[in-house]
Amino acid sequence: MKKINIVFSIAALAGLLLGSTVVSAAPNAKLSGTVKSDYSSLDYDGGKIMVGMLDGVAEVHSSSTGKLPNGLYRQRCAIRIHKSSQGLDVTSNCIMTDSGGDTISLIARRGAGEAQEGGGGDGKMTLVSGTGKFAGITGQCVYNASWLPDQWISVESTCVVD
């Protein structure tokens, strides 16, 4: 029970700091994901732009809504990272696919933290749409990304599914 309270407290704080609507309702699903990154980079205007793909698996757990049931999902994302003297700008457009082929489209954004091994940071994620049993799904999440060795990234999210 203590772990759940800590996760919710961190999510609530991150939601307040990021201006998210997540704290307006109790979270009703959690997502954990691990993805492998494959990037190309370009030095640009004193900074760096990285673009590429993320490929891995996501698990929905602790879900109390039938709109996003517990289970394993394939996750693929197109990602753009721009790091400059102005800060960090990360945007990922992702598709989660269940074993039946139904999909959830989401957008994850963050402007804090680092985009390198040992780094990471907090961001916001929006569930945009879905196909099949996920048609009409929407929601908001707060997340924390952790950059691991060998181009792996771990993501923990707490969500409110509408």
Write the layout of secondary structure elements.
Blueprint lengths: L1 H17 L10 E16 L2 E15 L9 E14 L2 E11 L5 E8 L9 E11 L8 E9 L4 E10 L1
Antiparallel strand pairs: 1-2, 1-8, 2-3, 3-4, 4-5, 5-6, 6-7, 7-8
Structural class: mainly beta
User: What is the helix tally?
Assistant: 1
Order of helices and strands: HEEEEEEEE
Please tell me what the overall shape is. Answer: elongated
**What ranges have pLDDT less than 50 throughout 5 or more consecutive residues?**
1-23
Radius of gyration over alpha carbons?
15 Å
Helix proportion: 10-25%
Share of β-strand residues: over 45%
Biggest sheet record: 8 strands, antiparallel, barrel
Overall description:
This protein is mainly β and 162 residues long. An eight-stranded antiparallel beta barrel has the order 1-2-3-4-5-6-7-8. Strand 6 and strand 7 form a beta hairpin. The two termini are 25 Å apart. The relative contact order is 0.21. The N terminus is likely disordered.
